[in-house]
């Protein structure tokens, strides 16, 4: 189960960083974007997203800032840092290798 959780955490981090690469965002908006862009195939809980953003922030890959919306409400926005962009390139490469490897295995097994 731990490996599955690591895989999901890695994908969650990659999706967060990819969305932040397009522009600063807040957790609810990130959650909605993931759901919308995946045609409702992926739904990642806000709790999972908050855990991932805290981890990414602690590692220096993203930073947060407050922005006032309305008269009394403040939102926490997240911004991709240069180190986060480098990390994103690395995890995208790893993801592509895994996808290609799994695809190759399944294709060969289907040929047997």
How would you describe the overall organization of this protein?
This is PadR family transcriptional regulator. InterPro entries: Metal_resp_DNA-bind_regulator, Tscrpt_reg_PadR_N, WH-like_DNA-bd_sf, WH_DNA-bd_sf. Pfam families: PadR. It comes from Anaerostipes butyraticus. It is a single chain. The longest helix has 30 residues. This protein is α+β, with helices and mostly antiparallel strands and 112 residues long. The protein has four helices and two strands; from the N terminus they run αααββα. The chain has a single domain, classed as Arc Repressor Mutant, subunit A (Orthogonal Bundle), CATH 1.10.10.10. The chain starts with a helix and ends with a helix. A hairpin with a 3-residue loop joins β1 and β2. The mean pLDDT is 92. Strands 1-2 form a two-stranded antiparallel sheet.
Short key terms for the protein model shown above:
Arc Repressor Mutant, subunit A
What is the compact description of this entry?
It comes from Anaerostipes butyraticus. Residues 16-88 form the Transcription regulator PadR N-terminal domain. The chain is of the alpha+beta class.
| Total DSSP helices | 4
CATH superfamily: Winged helix-like DNA-binding domain superfamily/Winged helix DNA-binding domain
Number of domains: 1
Strand order across the largest sheet = 1-2
- The tally of beta strands, per DSSP, is 2
Examine the coordinates and then state which fold CATH places here, giving the name of the CATH topology.
Arc Repressor Mutant, subunit A
């Amino acid at each position: 189960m731990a490996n599955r959780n690591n895989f999901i955490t890695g994908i969650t981090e990659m999706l967060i960083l990819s969305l932040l690469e397009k522009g600063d965002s807040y957790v609810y908006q990130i959650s909605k974007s993931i759901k919308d862009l995946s045609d409702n195939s992926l739904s990642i809980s806000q709790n999972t997203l908050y855990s991932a953003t805290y981890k990414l922030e602690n590692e220096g890959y993203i930073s947060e800032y407050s922005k006032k919306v309305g008269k009394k409400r403040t939102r926490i926005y997240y911004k991709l840092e240069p180190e986060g962009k480098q990390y994103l390139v690395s995890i995208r490469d790893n993801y592509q290798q895994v996808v290609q490897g799994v695809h190759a295995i399944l294709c060969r097994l289907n040929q047997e």
